[in-house]
Amino acid sequence: MDDTDIEQVTLALLDAANDKDSEVQDQVRKSMLTLGKQQPDRVLAMCQDYLLKNPKLVVSHRVVILQTIELIVGCRIEELSAPRIKSIISLASEEMTRSKDVVPDWQQAASNILVAVGNKRINDIMEEILSKFQPGVLPHFFVVQTLANLSDSNVYGMVPFLNAILGTMLPMLGMAKQDNMKWVFSSALCHFSDSILEYLANLDKAPDPTVRKDTFSGEIYAAFDILFNNWLQSREPKLRLTVGEAVGSMCHLMASDKLEEQLPRIIPAIVSLYKKNTEHYVISKSLCQVLEASVNMGSRVLDTQLDSLLVALHQQVSAPVDYSDPPTVKNHNEVLRCFSLLANSFPDRLVMYVLQRLENSNERSRMGSLAVLRHLINSSSSTMESKKLLILASIRQPMADHSNKVKKCVVQVISAMAHHGYLELEGGELLVRFIVQNCALHDTYQSHQRATSDPEEVTNEALRTMCDSTLHLLTTTVGRLADVLWPKLLYYLTPSQFSNATTPLCKSLIVLGNKKKSNQEPSFKIDFTQEVNLPSPQTLMIRLLVNAAFPFNSRGHGPPSLSLLQILSINIHPKTETVWEKEIPPLLSLLEESTAESLDKKKWDEKLLELLTQTLMSIEDDKWVCQFAAEATRYLSTYNNALEEKVLCV
Question: What are the MROH2B-like HEAT-repeats domain coordinates in residue numbering (predicted)?
């Protein structure tokens, strides 16, 4: 495409940018960008000329052209001549400030061009912007907004200018009478503070490594004084929130003595915002920053605020979390961070508070306390080390709660505890039992269930699936639990109340047994006389064979029962190993190819009876076989509710 063609196409696209259809506008921007990548200087010149020759274009038309300029500048600035960059800066600055009224779409599009240029040519941009940011004159809203956005997108370029900018800005704060100007100044101070903190945290990459926090402390405190004492009391919710957010960021830059002096006022003021605003995430984020700054400097007055802080934070952490609504998730996470910070300074008081709240039977309160407990176990493991037995004792109360929502939270806590060495301690077996009990849950009884729109609803099926997964994860990812779970999980295979958990139990025992057997660990061999509460080898064999007789019952417990029987062979009786290695795999293959409908039940029963006959013949131990017969008879009583299985035992 030659120059004439490019000019004609560009001109046609500039005219088409007036289309009201957003898809057409998007296509215009993409096409202009394609041309702009080929000849950036020429296309940008035509965009500028078009805007200058048509000063009365409607706002939406101007916006599309300004957005196109931003896109081309963003990806081709290195190829542009210095005069072209200067002229683009002048155009964008004039477009941004031509109207004294705020016209967001138009002025934001122009501001974005300045930010795009400023990412690479900060000195050129600052020369233009600061000419419109003069002492004693209230600047245009978007001049302040552009400075704020530049400090975000080009931290290393902007921070060296911020001391001078803050010096000019401070007297302007007193001149701001309208809420929108107060808002933009507060937002800018928040962005400036965050940029300074990022700069200080990465001094090794910074152009001027001599920059220090106290370079900005005086100006930041003076700005804090106005925002906190005057603007935070505004009736405008959006302004209050932004001031609160700025206060959180500014605390990190205040001199320690000033922050310590103000903390008894700052914390209650931030906490009080929860009652005045429905958007809580920004408040929690600000509170977290205040606490972080306080903890970092070793505040002594934070202690006096702890009780009221814990009450406010517990209310927040107990609020419903809707995972389809990101702000509620973000708020929950920020509140948990607050608890972590306080746990480092006040571990005893915080843990006691959370455990006491666990005693409250209120569902939401318990869920909140459990969320905090799980977070602290994961994030503050060294702090929690001395409190393990206390936590193990305290978790028993919510374990007895009938609410599935609470049970779900308990499972999450148990999973965290497993990874940090709690389950090996005395009382840990109760937590394993809790998981198994909920693996055995039956389906939610639907006929009397009303439709619910509760996003946090936890059905029996969902809780059971979660516990199945948890048991699998404990088995496969927490190596030190192997000796807690093996062979103790065998106990749960025989009581009828755990029958619906047979499948996940067998799968876990297969993993554990295989690993111990292949590693030739002595603990693979089970001493049934020493292990308390374990069923005898004969009872285990009966249970697993009966399961295999009805392979598709209890969530398909047949195949895992047979596989476990094969793994357990030498533990059942040393002479069963050879028979089972030969006979069980074909049975498993048959089940794999069958369904409940296609399996010939009569032939299947015959195959299992043949397996039993060969097993008893191979054992050649009259005493063992007699005990097997006696236990089969005694075991009949456990099948009172399962007539088919009872018949098989006979």
Answer: 254-646
Structure confidence by residue, pLDDT tens digits, 340-371: 999 999 999 999 999 999 998 899 999 999 99
- Beta strand segments in 528-578, E: none
8-state DSSP, 227: I
Contact status, residue 489 vs residue 434, Cβ threshold 8 Å = no
Radius of gyration of the chain (CA): 35
Using H for helix, E for strand and C for coil, what is the string for 584-601?
HHHHHHHHHCCCCCCCCH
Residue 144 contacts residue 178 (beta carbons within 8 Å): no
User: Do the beta carbons of residue 546 and residue 649 sit within 8 Å?
Assistant: yes
Cα 571 to Cα 566: distance, rounded to the nearest angstrom: 10
Calculate what percentage of the chain has a pLDDT beyond 90. Answer: 81
- C-alpha closest to that of 248 among 356, 337, 139, 378: 337
Check: pTM over 0.90? Answer yes or no.
no
Please give the structure tokens belonging to residue 262.
């103000």
Sign of CA dihedral 404, 409, 415, 418: negative
The predicted-structure confidence for 205-216, as pLDDT tens digits, reads as follows: 898 888 899 999
Instruction: Name the DSSP class of 207.
Output: S
Predicted confidence at residue 647, as pLDDT, reads 45
How many residues in total does the chain contain? 650
Residue 468: CB atoms within 10 Å: 20
How far is CA 187 from each of CA 102, 142, 286, rounded to the nearest angstrom?
16, 12, 13
By CB neighbour count within 10 A (0-12 exposed, 13-18 middle, 19+ buried), where does 402 fall?
A: exposed
Which stretches within 297-362 are classed as H helix? 302-317, 326-345, 347-358
Residue 538 host element (H or E)? helix 537-549
CA distance 541 to 456: 42
pLDDT tens track for 86-106: 999 999 999 999 999 999 999
Q: Where are the alpha helices (DSSP H) in 176-255?
A: 179-201, 214-226, 237-251
CB contact at 8 A, 74 and 113: no
Phi and psi angles of residue 269, each rounded to the nearest 5 degrees, phi first:
-65, -45
DSSP 3-state assignment of 379? helix
Phi/psi at 140 (nearest 5 deg)? -65, 145
Distance CA 419, CA 477 (A): 9
SS3 state of residue 346: coil
Q: In this structure, are residues 410 and 466 in contact, taking their beta carbons and an 8 Å threshold?
A: no
Rounded to an integer, what is the distance from CA 356 to the centroid of its chain?
26
Give start and end residues of each alpha helix (H) in 419-501: 428-439, 460-477, 482-485
Q: Give the whole-angstrom CA distance, residue 285 versus residue 33.
A: 38
Nearest to 45 by CA among 28, 12, 69: 69
CA distance to 231, 248, 305, 309, per residue, from 269 (Å): 12, 11, 12, 11
- 103's CB contacts (< 8 A; 6+ apart) are 59
* Distance of alpha carbon 426 from the chain centroid: 31
The Cα 166–Cα 158 span in angstroms is 12
- Picking from 546, 545, 559, 544, the residue whose alpha carbon sits closest to that of residue 590 is 559
